[in-house]
Design a protein that fits this description.
about 30% helix; six-stranded antiparallel sheet; 6 strands; about 25% strand
């Protein structure tokens, strides 16, 4: 499991999310809307894991990379979907809710993002890209 942010128990709700998670998630997504893609800083996995950290105060997959080559080596060891399956419960994409982790297929392979309802946000070359529920291939309940 990844690193954990210091917090007071009263900050977390029974569902494992912080009390003000919706506002925090909206602020985070807005702050990343024009952030260009950068391996290890603002790529699909980094964006999704930082969003989950905003919701739960825990950075769930503590891996480091700073190039496409390093990311590929990590993914050759274990795919993004397999890593997510080890941590969260998979749900049908028709049932995913705001703040859930989602995956879509891109020309470069699987990308992780966060479901915002009715669309999901993903890191892209020019900031965030949005995909509809019908373009999602997998979802996990956060």
């Amino acid at each position: 499991m990844g690193r954990r942010i210091e917090f007071q128990e009263s900050e977390l709700r029974p569902n494992g999310r912080v009390a003000n998670w919706e506002t925090r998630l909206s602020d985070f997504v807005q702050s990343k809307s024009d952030t260009p893609f950068e391996w290890g800083q603002h790529d699909c996995a980094s964006f999704a894991m930082k969003a989950i950290e905003i919701l739960t105060l825990e950075y769930p997959i503590d891996l480091e990379w700073d190039s496409a080559f390093q990311a590929k080596r990590l993914l050759d060891e274990k795919s993004l979907i397999n890593r997510a399956d080890e941590i969260w419960t998979s749900v049908d994409v028709s049932l995913c809710k705001r703040g859930d982790l989602v995956a879509t297929m891109t020309p470069d392979g699987v990308a992780l993002g966060i479901f915002l309802s009715p669309t999901a946000a993903f890191a892209s070359e020019v900031g965030l890209a949005y995909r509809g529920r019908h373009e999602l291939i997998q979802a996990w309940s956060i």
